[in-house]
Design brief:
This is Glycosyl transferase family 11. By secondary structure, the chain is an alpha/beta fold. It is built from 13 helices and ten strands. The protein has two domains: 4-140; 153-313, Rossmann fold (3-Layer(aba) Sandwich). Helix 2 packs across helix 10 (252-260) and helix 9 (232-240) crosses helix 10. The protein is elongated.
Length: 315
């Protein structure tokens, strides 16, 4: 049993918010973090984030390019604040997964820890807090990661091809029915359309955990190169700085890049049907987000305007 004195001490402690990140990829971990960060900001609570240091055996066993080790990517939690959250979790009042909003009853009561550890419904619950989350994510980067990000050149067309745990594309695979890699033909078609509207073969940067051999048809396109190997968080934030983004389907990693971006985002039809929208509607009135028809002449007017505006800024 918990000693009465310790219980009394816990109930005298100020409230705190704790993001307990799941043992998933970076994109899914950030979904949990974002809900907790937005809730903490709305209610004036300190935030403790744990889980970035978890080790995953899968990427090693599958021989993936990225080993999904994130402990060096972010600033560690303050020891006193971590002890505070742990004490409340053991002896205080634990509130799990509260709605991302201001508490209706006023300031959070003492002795309470608000815990987030479940995957949310993608970006819907915190999309309106995008600008704050973008600032907060940059602020929690380890100094070495911030320097690497600042030193890298932003892509023109940024493409994310998820491979790794998905394995090779099976002939006839239906993305609408199950998880799997996005066909390279999807990316190649969109690159061709973007270049046609811009009026020149603008450069493409490919971010991927697939091998060069698996990416060969895509990398064979003119002015198409693979991004140098960097930590995943640097790739995610650099992809978000692209002037045009082509995400993979079924990838919260590239969805995060799209969410943080101020650029047109060209989605796979399955992803668009599943998510409907990633970013706030006000932003999507300025920068296109969605799918495109097969015929380039039928591409939406907002997207064509976004791409035409890049003609004067081509490298």
């Amino acid at each position: 049993m918990i000693p009465a004195a310790l219980s009394r001490l816990a109930h005298a402690l100020p409230p705190v918010c704790h993001a307990r990140l799941p043992r998933n990829g970076l994109g899914n971990m950030l979904l949990v973090w974002a809900r907790a960060a937005a809730f903490a900001e709305l209610n004036g609570l300190p935030l403790v984030t744990t889980g970035f240091g978890a080790v995953r055996l899968g990427p090693w066993l599958r021989g993936e390019r990225q080993k999904r080790i994130y402990v060096a990517d972010f600033l560690p939690p303050h020891p006193a604040r971590l002890a505070h959250a742990t004490t409340l979790a053991l002896t205080g009042n634990v509130v799990r997964e509260p709605r991302v909003a201001r508490l209706p009853e006023g300031p959070a009561p003492k002795g309470t820890v608000y815990v987030y550890d479940a995957l949310p419904d993608f970006f819907m619950s915190f999309a309106e807090h995008r600008d704050f989350l973008r600032r907060r994510l940059l602020a929690m980067l380890a100094p070495a990661r911030r320097r690497a990000l600042d030193a890298a050149e932003a892509p023109f067309i940024g493409v994310h091809v998820r491979g790794g745990d998905f394995g090779p594309l099976a002939p006839g695979h239906d993305l609408s029915r199950s998880l799997g890699p996005t066909p390279l033909s999807h990316f190649m078609r969109l690159i061709e359309g973007i270049r046609a509207i811009v009026g020149e073969p603008v450069p493409v940067t490919v971010f991927s955990d697939s091998s060069d051999r698996e990416l060969a048809p895509l990398l064979a396109l003119p002015r198409t190169t693979r991004a140098p190997e960097r930590p995943a968080i640097v790739d995610l934030l650099l992809l978000a700085r692209s002037r045009v983004i082509i995400p993979s389907a079924w990838s919260t990693f590239s969805m995060w890049s799209a969410f943080l971006s101020d650029a047109p985002v060209l989605l796979h039809p399955m992803e668009h049907e599943h998510l409907r929208s990633i970013r706030p509607a006000s932003l999507n009135r300025r920068f296109y987000e969605g799918t495109v028809p097969q015929n380039i002449a039928d591409w939406p007017s907002l997207l064509r305007e976004n791409l035409a505006a890049l003609k004067t800024r081509t490298p």
